[in-house]
Amino acid sequence: MAKSMAKSVVILKGGLSAEREVSLNSGAACAAALREAGYSVREVDVSRDLGALVAALDPAPDAVFNALHGRWGEDGCVQGMLELLQIPYTHSGVLASALAMDKVMAKGIVAGAGVTSPSGRIIKAKELDQGDPLPRPYVVKPVREGSSVGVRIVQEGDNQAPIEVSGWHPEQDLLVEPFIPGRELTVSVMGDRALAVTEINPLGDGFYDYDAKYSEDNQVAAVHVIPAAVPQTIYEQALNASLAAHQVLGCRGVSRSDFRYDDTGDQPGDLYYLETNTQPGMTTTSLVPEQARHIGLSFHELCAWMVENAACDS
Description:
The protein is an alpha+beta fold. It has helices at about 20-35, 50-55, 75-85, 95-100, 105-110, 165, 210-215, 220, 230-250, 285-295, 300-310, and strands at about 10-15, 40-45, 65, 120-125, 140, 150-155, 175-180, 185-190, 195-200, 220-225, 255-260, 270-275. It folds into three domains: about 10-90, Rossmann fold (3-Layer(aba) Sandwich), CATH 3.40.50.20; about 100-120 and about 180-295, D-amino Acid Aminotransferase, Chain A, domain 1 (2-Layer Sandwich), CATH 3.30.470.20; about 120-180, ATP-grasp fold, A domain (Dna Ligase, domain 1, 2-Layer Sandwich). It contains eleven helices and twelve strands. The strands form three sheets. It has a five-stranded antiparallel sheet. A four-stranded antiparallel sheet has the order 4-7-5-6, with no helix packed on it. A three-stranded parallel sheet has the order 2-1-3, covered by helices on one side. Strand 1 (about 10-15), helix 1 and strand 2 (about 40-45) form a beta-alpha-beta unit. Helix 1 packs across helix 11.
């Protein structure tokens, strides 16, 4: 009997967003893992040339592994193109990707599932020049970015207006929320299972920003505690909330939801949902592979599962 050919996979990486570098790292790591798992892999660095991307997908692979992060790769744009081409792809579909990328829309939808988020409102960046929109401390973040890109915590005693140091353009939509004291938690979902709760302890200024997430030496930038040392009720609440967010947003494959746990008052404290990442990082320092290892899945087994569960919405 002739040996069957290896399943073909195209990995999309790079892209145009502020998260290009981490996407290149994610793509390279996943490509190596899938080759180890026995797949035939091609890697494509995505540019603004749509024709070149379509050509790179001919002949059509058995699946596309979408390792893009941020705008255009994580917000439904590339997903829509793959739907038109009818090529199965990893992670969430068009609608779930677009909803999760919009933090305000996502929070509203997830609230319908009984998951609590910090209260907040949308402002234009130029409004920050007119004074504080909320009592300090508060958090300002772009409505449609990922990986803490452009996030700023405005503390008591800060002298510069955040627009002066954050690179926002005056008409950019920003979400302003009260700063929740306490601890940073995150939970990965794989299919219909929430994997584990990780507590993230950033070093330095105490903010788990883009650099802390994707430092080449992540153990210096942040310490990951898995399983998180939190009360069992909070641990279960975080697992359930992440799965609820994954389901109500319509996600598939792998997602990761982030939370703040305020344990500064009466115990057991309060858990607040922040956002869901439909295409979380897949580098050697990323949280999803770490949680997969915690439940006994190697990195190449995780990547293979994602390919085998690739799909189209239509």
